[in-house]
Amino acid sequence: MLIAERLRDERLPRQQRTARLGVLLAILLATSPVYTRAQDDVPPAPRQEPAAGSSTSSGSAQEPVPDEQTTSTLDPGTGSMADQNNRIIALRWGHLSALSIDGFYAHDTNYRNSPTNAQPADAVAARIVASYLVGNEREGLDVEYRPDVLVSQRAQDYQFGASLVNLHVLRPIGESWVLAIRDSFKYEPDFALFGAPTITLNSTGGITQQSLLPSGTSDLLNAASVSLSYRLARHDHIGFHVQDEYAELNNRTGSVKLPGIFYGSNNFVGGGVYWTHSIGPNHEFGVAYNYDRQIFGVSQSQYHNIVFNYRQKLRPTILLEASGGPSFHVYPNGIPNQKTFVASVNISKKFHHSNLAFLYGRGYEFTGVITDSYHDRYDAFYTRVFQEVWGFELGASYAKTHVTQSAQGVSILEGFARLSYHLSPHWTLFASFTNSVFTRKTEQNVDRNFITAGARWSYGSQRGVQQ
Q: At the N or C end, where does the chain have fewer CB atoms within 10 A?
């Protein structure tokens, strides 16, 4: 959250549009009908493995659930937005669920995000996270609305458009085919001020990577996909998919634009095919081909990828997921083509009261910075619970984009630490520290630190809630 000087008569069209979006979402939450088929009234959906190209286990006779398809160069089942929608619902009124209300004090060491003239600021802020859920695993609509208000000695700042909308439909066709349609929309400002970590454990115990946004920016992202999977045999599946991903990165009012960052839009349109073979419920491998056409500003280029996937639970508490293969980037107008590789490696270990995870990814999907080439991203995360009332999180994320003829390489490093104490099932005290560093070879580094301390109220147990 940027602590910025913003006067009411200086609102830009984008703030107006996002404010209108917030009002529309609020109306949706208040007026949408509560009728839906209960999850207990429909047949259980087939089990979905989190790995790329995953399918039913070797002993399952159910239909496979098609994997989430996005423009990612990596596993067909891994999407940049798919894993960001896991939530724990703490309060229910029909389908409307209020997850939490936060109030806290914040200190920002560089509220204008300036590389040469850092100016600190203090503020008090409040945020509400509300969720509307309707449907079940086979078809449903999820809406998450996150308005916030911040008051500092400089000015007032607010965001009424921060939101997430997720729609999914899974339909069996005959005995061997399954059709999946998904669409995810997300608008988010840079939430570093709120101590929002870039990597967390989600409500299902999996790992969620958030966009690594540069300080002082906001992004709008929409990912749509249609996939069709076919069961060749008990242990073998093939799938076909098409996808479209639109990303837009903008500088927020009052923040200094960062050099080397492309502010604008980017669009991927593509498709592919994959095959997977299951050795057991937690052991599988496969291969996939993916094609993407990128529209970057006024230029267009193509990506061709062949990716080999492997997933295995090495021990009951250790999970390995790895993908990789050659990638070819074809530029227009005689620009030399690029030959490289894409890869993804995730290793997670679960202890009795803690979790540890290391992740590496190389691709070209949106990860917080728009570019017409590849990027590398590294993540590390550790969480620990003490005496069932204290919670501690420590993590770091680093992303580096590659230099091209139309884009300059930049790197973003963000580290965070969070401490929480659960007073009761309704109240939690928390404190966090976040450090963000933006680097470009020919420019001075932009350093920014955030310190927050406050309280959270929710109805029901909050332990394990990640935002």
A: C
Identify the domain containing residue 58 by its residue range: 8-351
Q: What gap in Å lies between CA 177 and CA 170, rounded to an integer? A: 11
pLDDT per residue as tens digits for the range 402-453 = 866 555 678 899 999 999 999 988 899 999 999 988 887 767 788 889 899 9
Q: Give the Cα separation of 363 and 401 in Å (integer).
A: 10
Q: Which residue has the tokens 């917030």?
A: 22
Q: Is residue 65 part of a domain?
A: yes
Which of the residues in the chain have pLDDT under 50?
1-94, 460-467
- The structural domain count of the chain equals 1
**CA 139 to the chain's CA centroid:** 21
Would you state the pLDDT for residue 142?
86
Alpha carbons 363 and 373: distance in angstroms, whole number: 8
Q: In this structure, are strands 446-457 and 217-231 parallel, antiparallel, or unpaired?
A: unpaired
Cβ atoms of residues 2 and 216 within 8 Å: yes
The answer to whether residue 191 is domain-embedded is yes
> Is 227 part of a structural domain of the chain?
yes
**pLDDT value of position 114:** 77
168 token code pair = 């999914």
Supply the pLDDT for residue 328. 96
Which residue type occupies 21? L
Let me know if residue 224 belongs to a domain: yes
